[in-house]
């Protein structure tokens, strides 16, 4: 491969199919079309890689040299190779509502960084959270040397980052460091100890779970105001849950287990009427058998038609949160240092809260929240004292047991 000459006249589609490992690099250069299979087929077959470079005003010679390096690096197996000092690799899953605006902002950052630091290279692969944690785990399976891990991970949820058979096995080592420089979190999180006391994991934002109540069919029941209310017999088979949103659903299960024990998780299973995607939830009053209460990410309350009888309720005992974690290796790489600054910045925080209603921890960001918006958070003590993967599996078994006890 080292002697093979790259053919830039190949269609973008053919090139990606021949060299799929170049996708993260191509995306980092702004060729985001390669990530979308349907768009790649439709558009990528009509344009050559060379034409694409012209359209993006990218220097052909420089691009070819760096692309050749990427191909050589990947062929030598980057999954079992210490990453060179001039390369920074970022891997992550971004919540769907903010993925595109964050990706666009990050691409601009990368373009500027490369122009100012031509000897450095940022390689990133950021997918939609909907692809699930398995995708990220596939990139680290079999790696035992932390030096061979990507330099940065970003994702919501607990499963991957605390799984003792996955990234979590490096938590008790000196691998990761919270290098964001944020010492005081946004005042919206006052009383919520989100900062890792061990100084290893960073949290940049959270995904809150709230209630959407269908007041038209609530009847003589009291409108639920707390998580305990959701578990009452009058809401049995009357609740919709975001079962398909693994990160948030697992966070809800773990929090209910911590707050109300095994019986609480079983009762949550009994409360389940159906599992809906959040985008379906806001229309659930149109279903033949609509749920009275829908538990959903706060973002989707933005879509609610106020005349529909659907009312958003922020739990008085706190919205259960799924943090957006950022794990960064202990390193002096310039690319990593600058990338940390980007994701921990006020600019990124504004994108998270304005586009996704995901409250940012940055102290200067004005989060879009109700006047009273407490949070319910598992806590670092719980995360460090429990095998989270086993706890999630246990919760799922309890939840299913509750469902089957109707």
Summarize the structure.
The protein is an alpha/beta fold and 406 residues long. The chain has helices spanning 12-18, 23-28, 37-44, 49-55, 60-75, 96-116, 133-138, 159-162, 227-230, 246-271, 278-281, 334-343, 346-356, 380-385, 388-403, and strands at residues 87-94, 121-128, 152-156, 202-214, 239-241, 272-275, 293-297, 310-313, 319-328, 375-376. It is globular.
Topology:
Elements: H1 12-18, H2 23-28, H3 37-44, H4 49-55, H5 60-75, E1 87-94, H6 96-116, E2 121-128, H7 133-138, E3 152-156, H8 159-162, E4 202-214, H9 227-230, E5 239-241, H10 246-271, E6 272-275, H11 278-281, E7 293-297, E8 310-313, E9 319-328, H12 334-343, H13 346-356, E10 375-376, H14 380-385, H15 388-403
Parallel strand pairs: 1-2, 1-3, 5-6, 5-7, 9-10
Antiparallel strand pairs: 3-9, 4-7, 4-8, 4-9
Task: Describe the fold and architecture.
The protein is of the alpha/beta class. It has 15 helices and ten strands. It has helices at 12-18, 23-28, 37-44, 49-55, 60-75, 96-116, 133-138, 159-162, 227-230, 246-271, 278-281, 334-343, 346-356, 380-385, 388-403, and strands at 87-94, 121-128, 152-156, 202-214, 239-241, 272-275, 293-297, 310-313, 319-328, 375-376. The relative contact order is 0.14.
């Amino acid at each position: 491969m080292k002697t093979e000459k790259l053919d830039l006249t190949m269609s973008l589609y053919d090139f990606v199919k021949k060299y799929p490992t170049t996708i993260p690099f191509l995306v980092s250069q702004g060729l985001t079309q390669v990530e979308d299979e349907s768009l790649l087929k439709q558009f990528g077959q009509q344009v050559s890689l060379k034409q694409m470079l012209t359209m993006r005003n990218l220097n052909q010679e420089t691009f070819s040299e760096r692309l050749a390096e990427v191909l050589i690096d990947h062929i030598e197996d980057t999954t079992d190779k210490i990453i060179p000092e001039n390369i920074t690799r970022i891997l992550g899953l971004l919540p769907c509502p903010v993925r595109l605006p964050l990706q666009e902002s990050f691409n601009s950052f990368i373009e500027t960084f490369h122009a100012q630091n031509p000897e450095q290279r940022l390689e990133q692969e950021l997918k939609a959270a909907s692809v699930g944690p398995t995708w990220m785990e596939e990139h680290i399976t079999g790696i035992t040397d932390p030096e061979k891990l990507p330099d940065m991970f970003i994702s919501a949820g607990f499963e991957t980052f605390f799984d003792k058979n996955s990234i979590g096995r490096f938590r008790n080592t000196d691998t990761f460091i919270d290098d964001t420089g944020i010492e005081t979190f946004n005042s919206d999180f006052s009383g919520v100890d989100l900062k890792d006391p061990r100084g290893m994991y960073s949290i940049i934002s959270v995904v809150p779970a709230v209630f959407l109540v269908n007041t038209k069919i609530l009847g003589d029941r009291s409108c639920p105001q707390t998580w305990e209310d959701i578990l009452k017999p009058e809401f049995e088979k009357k609740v919709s849950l975001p079962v398909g949103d693994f990160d948030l659903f697992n966070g809800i299960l773990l929090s209910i287990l911590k707050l109300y024990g095994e019986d609480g998780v079983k009762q949550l299973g009994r409360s389940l009427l159906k599992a809906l995607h959040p985008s379906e939830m806001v229309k659930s009053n149109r279903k033949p058998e609509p749920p009275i209460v829908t538990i959903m990410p706060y973002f989707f309350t933005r879509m609610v038609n106020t005349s529909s009888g659907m009312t958003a309720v922020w739990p008085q005992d706190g919205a259960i949160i799924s943090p957006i974690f950022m794990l960064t290796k202990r390193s002096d790489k310039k690319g990593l240092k600058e990338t940390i600054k980007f994701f921990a910045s006020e600019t990124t925080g504004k994108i998270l809260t304005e586009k996704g209603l995901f409250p940012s921890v940055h102290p200067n960001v004005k989060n879009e929240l109700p006047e009273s918006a407490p949070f319910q958070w598992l806590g670092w003590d719980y995360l460090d004292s429990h095998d989270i993967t086993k706890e999630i599996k246990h919760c799922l078994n309890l939840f299913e047991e509750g469902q089957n006890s109707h």
